[in-house]
Amino acid sequence: MNSIIPAPIARQPWAMLIPLFVLVGFGAMVLYSAGGGSWEPYADSHLIRFGACLAIAAVITLFGRDFVRFATFPAYGIILVMLVGVEAIGAMGGGSQRWLELGFIRIQPSELMKPAIVVALAKFYDTLPPAMIVSWRALIPAGALIAMPMALVLLQPDLGTALAIAFGGAVVMFLAGLPLKWFALGGAGAAAVAPLAYFFALKDYQQRRVTTFLDPENDPLGDGYHIMQSKIAIGSGGITGKGFNNGSQSHLDYLPEPHTDFVFATMAEEWGLLGGILVIVIFGLILRWGMQVARNTEDRFARLLAAGMVATIFFYVAINLLMVMGFAPVVGIPLPFMSHGGSSMLTNMMCIGALMMVNRWNREAPRARFA
Amino acid sequence: MAGLGTRQTVSSAKLSNTYDRRSFVLGSVGGGVGVLLAARMAYIAIAENEKYEVEAESNRVNLSLIPPRRGWILDRNGAPLASNRADFRVDLIPERLTDKDRTFAVLAEVLELDEYAVRDLADKVETSPDFQPLEVATGLSYDQFAAISVRLPEIPGVIPQRGFSRFYPTGPTVGHLIGYVGPANAEEYEEEANPLLITPGYKIGKDGLEKQFEQELRGKPGARRVEVTAGGRIVRDLDTRADVQGDPVRLTIDGPLQDYAARRIGLESGSVVVMDCNTGELLCMASMPSFDPNSFSSGIGSVEYAMLREDERVPLRNKVLKGLYPPGSTVKPMHSMAFLQAGISPDEKIVCGGGRRIGNRFFRCWSNHGVVDMAKGIYQSCDSYFYHFAQQVGFANVANFAKSMGLQQEFPLPVTSQFFGTVPSPAWLRERHDREWQPYDTVNASIGQGYYLANPLQLAVMTSRLATGLMVEPSLVKSDKPRVFKSAGFEPENVEYVRRAMSDVVNGPGTAGRARLPLEDILMAGKTGTAQVVGLNISDGRSGPWKYRDHGLFVFFAPLEKPRYAGAVVIEHGGGSGSAYPIARDVMTFLFDPVKGLEALRALEEQWGGTAQERLTRKYAAYAAAAGEDVPPAPTRDEEIFDRVEAEARVAARKPEALATGSVSSRNETSSGVSGPPDAAAPTPSAPTRDVGAEE
Q: Which residue is closest to B33 within chain A, CA to CA?
């Protein structure tokens, strides 16, 4: 490290933070354009939210290992109760609702559950004796930890978030060392249940999203509209794009949700393939840094926790990008750090905070160990 | 792998190992997804770039056709009978509607539509093809136009625009002649798959000359490229190509005369045809009552349609071409000419003893005329004279001559359809009714009754040919080339003789003294006719229910010495010729001296309660107020209306045939006693109701 820079600043994980700042800044530019060439209403609040969430991440970074271990299950329990509370309020109010109004802040417990499930499972596998990893006792409690919030979120109904929870949990289980054949069985089971779920569990509009995804041109003015318009935006951008603030698809309202779910298409139209590659590369850098953080720790809890956080962010990015490029159904998952929206920003920054926390543990632990 | 370790003890170290391997796998999968995404994006943005660029452009840019301004229809002097008026309009495309009720509510509120208009609109949305633009309103004020434009985002499918709408300055008086315009229907679009036809605001000719000259009048559409949002809001104009206006069509019609004649018909139901008998140019083809083509162009409203349809004076029928009437005594000059051509001397006399014996039966004349020669036969309209000589010459010969004079003939005119009527003859009777010609058939036909049917245009052509001795052919489109007609082959002195006799009808001791023109130096000649429509046992033809009264006819030409104009007036159920010749007199007066003609008309219109247009407007308001809610919707296809009107016209024309099997004597031709035009709504039961009592 260069000695000109003070140590507290120099030891921050700039390998991740710089790409992240670039990405958020780029996102703000795209939102500026999506707002019709104006800071209002998207770009400014995007930056403000990022600032606030960065502060929360900084606080999380300071959490000690013991505190986190101690707080894991109580926190999981509280969030689960909040999910039940959301259901109860929704049922009483006669409509579905995803958030709790706490007077000064509106909390979406399903969002908090995404990092929480990762931490809870990490704790569970950390405390599980290694020999038991191949027994049913490694599977059933963990399965219950995942299934309870999933079921509550599905009731909302919010398929995207439920899948995100399942994905984060599954990745932790996979990395914890559960026997591969269980995953093979699970995969086969899911493949068998999928058609049944399609016909019996999914609502009409969700079924349509799936069929539309399979054949978007079939109904270009109806359900295929979103995917078609997104592909038109990306495709018409070409290599270098139409130029900042010149996207016709977003500015003339052809692109649905140009500032949230389809923000990548908005970006690609104006910045072209180069912009798209930049975004993908930046996500790659951030996620690779996260995986390195996970690999650098010897502590099983921290390692599973970090990898699970990376998986959660990855899930957002992958599903969103697959969706806007026509490879996945429209499920309403925003793109981290670029889409306008407080909940996704908070969740992803909590994941980043957790990763920075593990990174700090890594930095301090060896010193403690070899001191 | 870990799966193999079921029987081994699993250590922390082993789990750490597993983690490393598996995290590497996951990392690779993640990286793979990243590469896949980059590749996919490159494929979309590079390989498919062109395709999506085109699609983005077709999203962004909306090419809309600008309906061409329709060519004007001009009268002989270049004055417009149909022109275009710049206005603000609102159309609606059903397939783009999202919330019908809300859209209708907004439209009704902003455009101040009444409930009937909203209901008609809703019916049209239900029944017409989805892609078809429907007209909501035209002639909006700028404020209304602006109000609709502002509210567009909440009412998708509604299209306000500036445009031109067809305007008929004289309204109903040209309705039947010019026709009207309207949006193309599904069949018309199928026939001619021209995107122009489904462009909002574009209208094609639906009837009359508008339909006949559609291609000439159409012009070339302009185009406008605009940048639009997904919601259809126009962001800015990119470029515009102006439309090319359609070619004008110049008619032979004299606009003021047409208007005058139509207005002069007044409360009656009838038609006036005037032609230039030297050139064949039709100066006037008025048929009343009529509809207002201005109000038809936005589609025929149910209330308006019901009103027109229920009217027994059939305002939807063009009576000049589709009104067939027994010509009655108006054929007598023409029959006289037939006799002359057959070698009868005009001085041959017969004695009318209040009738005459033909074959073994005595047929009555309407009066006792004593000794009658040809001239007296014409000006006194003596039936006996025509019974006798028609029998002597043979009616087959007379019929052939009648056909050569234009009866039972269709003329090559640009009209949608014309009925050609009947000149009965023994051959025709055998073919049509499968029976032999009887003396009473000759008697009936000789005075223009029985199976005889002609339309007013034919009567006008007949009179032209008779007055000039030339085979005049009527024309409707103004041409610079002078037309030369071949001679009909009459002896000049015979032509002169018939002219003189017809002059005496008006200016001499004839049946229509009141038809004399109030002009110093111009004499009009003519011939009255009264056509019986029901048997004497039902009505005396002059009083009682309107539909049983006799038709009044009058054919005429002027000036006497050098005929320039000829024409015919037919008043349906006018109660006799007395309803027809005053109209002919005033129309001809107007032609020679407009000021004098208008004075006469003004006095009458004051009595009738305004011009034809004013009365129609008032009638509509009264009808809508009275019957509004219960009226059935109008047929959505204009063709259905035409077919219905045409079918009814044919039925109406066949009615007199019922009389043809008996003998009919022509009616009292000095019927000046018939009072002014009776109003159908309040028939004047002046005459004793001896014959009709049972009917009422």
A: A318
Report the chain A residue with the minimal C-alpha distance to residue B231.
A253
Chain segment B581-610, per-residue pLDDT in tens: 899 999 999 999 999 989 888 888 888 888
Kindly give the parts of chain A with pLDDT less than 70.
Answer: 1-3, 92-97, 102-105, 209, 212-223, 365-371
Check residue A94 and give its pLDDT.
57
Cβ contact, residue pair A273, B45, below 8 Å: yes
Reported ipTM: the value is 0.91
Q: Distance between the two ends of chain A, CA-based, in angstroms?
A: 22
Q: What is the DSSP string of B39-53?
A: HHHHIIIIITHHHHH
A300 neighbourhood in chain B, CB within 8 Å = 12, 15-16, 19
Q: Evaluate whether the domain defined by B62-250 bears CATH number 3.40.50.2300.
A: no
How far is residue B380's CA from residue B1's CA, in Å, rounded to a whole number? 129
Residue in B6, B41, B57 closest to A234 by CB: B41
CA angle, residues B47, B52, B58, in degrees to nearest 5: 155
Q: For chain B, which residues make up each domain, given as ranges?
A: 62-250, 255-555+570-670
Question: What secondary structure, in 3-state letters, does B353-367 show?
Answer: CCEEEECCEEEECCC
As given in the structure block, the two tokens for residue A294 are 């996970």
CB pairs under 8 A between A and B: 147
Higher pLDDT, B421 or B689: B421
Q: Tell me the chain B residues in contact with residue A238 when contact means C-beta distances shorter than 8 Å.
A: 45-46, 49, 53
Structure tokens at B429: 């009777």
Contact A235 B23 (CB under 8 A): no
Mutation target to probe the A interface, by most A beta carbons within 10 A, among B1, B15, B46, B235 is B15
- Report the topology of domain B255-555+570-670: Beta-lactamase (3.40.710)
With cut-offs at 50, 70 and 90, classify the pLDDT of residue B678.
Answer: very low
Residue ranges per structural domain of chain A: 7-363
**CB < 8 Å to A309, chain B:** none
Length of chain B counted residue by residue: 696
Query: Helix axis angle, B100-111 relative to B115-127, nearest 10°?
Result: 140
Task: Report d(CA B568, CA B330) in Å as an integer.
Answer: 9
For B239-264, the pLDDT digits (tens) are 888 888 899 999 999 999 999 999 99
Q: How far apart are CA B71 and CA B56, in angstroms?
A: 38
